[in-house]
Specification:
Elements: H1 12-25, H2 32-40, H3 52-56, E1 62-66, E2 72-76, H4 79-89, E3 96-100, H5 105-114, E4 119-124, H6 127-140, E5 146-149, E6 162-167, H7 176-180, E7 182-194, E8 197-206, E9 209-217, E10 232-237, E11 240-244, H8 253-261, E12 265-272, H9 276-286, E13 290-295, H10 297-301, E14 313-318, E15 321-330, E16 335-343, H11 347-365, E17 371-376, E18 388-390, E19 395-400
Parallel strand pairs: 3-4, 3-6, 4-5, 6-7
Antiparallel strand pairs: 1-2, 7-8, 8-9, 9-17, 10-11, 11-13, 12-16, 13-14, 14-15, 15-16, 17-19, 18-19
Helix pairs in contact: 1-2, 2-5, 9-11
The structure holds S-adenosylmethionine.
S-adenosylmethionine is lined by residues 73-77, 99-106, 123-126, 129, 151-153, 168-169, 220-221, 223-225, 227.
GO molecular function: methyltransferase activity
Pfam families: PCMT
Keywords: Cytoplasm, Methyltransferase, S-adenosyl-L-methionine, Transferase
């Protein structure tokens, strides 16, 4: 086992060992095969232009490509997220694995886990990325990994069925090929985007559809090509944007912008605010007309919108009114209390509805892993039941226990 001493701390093997320790400490690595893979694969060889420190930072990404606007379209994902997803996938020696979204490093980790009897195919839509991944894999000694240039929307039928499919770009939907290309006992781990939120969901088959086994917070570059997101984004004014993919939401830009000029109504839930990512998921899936409100720092400094919107916050939108979550210190609720800020003619009723959801979550679902995702490759029923999100090829349903 590689250990870190003062003398070798800047050498790749020592940095790798330190990264593995850190990933174990953070709870991202929980199994020996995943730990062994991270200890074996020389991560820096897949980021030749980055410093060793950047390559081995457990929570850092390394950019591989930006688009013409400077937005990241390909990165070497953070080791922390890769570890969490590999643990979710429960890959075993001898398995056949498809990765959608290449870079080389994650495919090499998978190759370590499946071993000589297993096989790994990695597909990317971008030739620059497949060329780079092939070169890095060869350089690092992982030339058994098959690199394919393809839009992952259609899967990679040549090689199917796969025991595992790992998707490493944020997917707005689950195309039919990903289900049909999976073995009966297969598992797909996919960063699924639902109403603007992305969670890495491990799905097993359930009938013709999929049932989640675990989920966790994930941030990925968006899927390109045929499977790109179907979202509406509007700017209310410079620095304030709303985004939604829910067909029920009407985005009346002028009225909503005017509403923000009206005095704000504040309501407090009397309930604890914690586990923000779990609460956010619950709110987004249970608000009757959900959208995501984003605000820039200068708008927050002006006092137009409160601070939670800086990172994006679930909002309830109805005609010319809007309500969104906030929080304040309150020792009586364990440190922090959740609340709502609302604007517009319906501020009172939206705030009441929103506050009730905050209380319900705190009372009934305030823990990790309370949600179960289902994916059915059939159209959503009308009217849309709460927790049901229509997609292009099927329907996502999220229930809570
Ligand atoms: C986060 S990077 C992948 C990281 C990689 N798995 C690693 O080892 O770190 C996401 C990749 O998904 C690719 N991608 C986006 N849309 C795609 C699609 N429709 N099919 C295949 N690849 C896609 C991008 O080109 C990008 O390289």
């Amino acid at each position: 086992m590689t250990t870190v001493s003062d003398s070798n701390i800047h050498e790749p093997a020592a940095m790798r060992a330190a990264m593995v320790n850190s990933l174990r400490g953070q709870g991202a690595i929980t199994s020996e095969p995943v730990a062994a893979a991270f200890a074996a694969v020389p991560r820096h060889r897949f980021a030749p232009d980055a410093t060793l420190e950047a390559s081995y930072a457990p929570n850092g990404t390394v950019v591989a490509k930006r688009d013409e606007h400077g937005l990241e379209i390909s990165v070497m994902s953070a080791a922390h997220l890769q570890a969490v997803m590999l643990e979710q996938a429960q890959i075993e020696p001898g398995m056949k694995v498809l990765e959608i979204g290449s870079g080389g490093y994650n495919a090499a980790l998978i190759q370590e886990i499946v071993g000589p009897q297993g096989s790994v195919t990695t597909a990317d839509i971008d030739k620059d990325i497949t060329d780079r991944a092939s070169a890095c894999l060869t350089d690092a000694g992982y030339d058994r990994v098959k690199v394919v240039l393809a839009d992952g929307e259609a899967g990679v039928p040549d090689g199917a069925p796969y025991d595992r499919i790992l998707v490493t770009a944020a997917a707005w939907d689950i195309p039919p090929a990903w289900i049909s290309d999976l073995t009966e006992q297969g598992r797909i781990v996919v960063p699924l985007t639902v109403c603007g939120l992305t969670r890495s969901v491990a799905f097993d088959r359930e009938g013709t559809g999929l049932l989640s086994r675990s989920y966790c917070l994930a941030r990925f570059v968006p899927m390109q090509g045929e499977g790109a997101a179907e979202e509406r984004k509007v700017l209310l004014r410079e620095g304030i944007a709303l985004q939604t993919d829910d067909p029920r939401v009407v985005l009346n830009t002028t009225a909503l912008d005017q509403a923000l000029n009206e005095p704000r109504l504040e309501r407090w839930s009397g309930a604890a605010y914690d586990l923000p990512d779990e609460l956010e998921l619950y709110l987004t899936l249970n608000l009757p007309e959900p959208a995501r409100l984003h605000a820039a720092q200068h708008v927050i400094d002006q006092g137009v919108v409160a601070a939670p919107a800086l990172l994006g916050v679930p909002a309830l939108v109805s005609e010319g009114s809007i309500a969104y979550r906030t929080r304040r210190e309150n020792e009586d609720t364990g440190g922090l209390e959740s609340g709502v800020i609302a604007h517009g003619p319906q501020a009172e009723s939206l705030a009441e509805h929103y506050t009730e959801l905050l209380r319900t979550w705190a009372r009934d679902h305030r823990r990790r892993g309370a949600a179960t995702f289902r994916y059915l490759p059939t159209p959503a029923p009308t009217p849309l039941p709460q927790g049901t999100v229509p997609k292009r090829h099927g329907t996502v349903t999220v229930s809570w226990n």
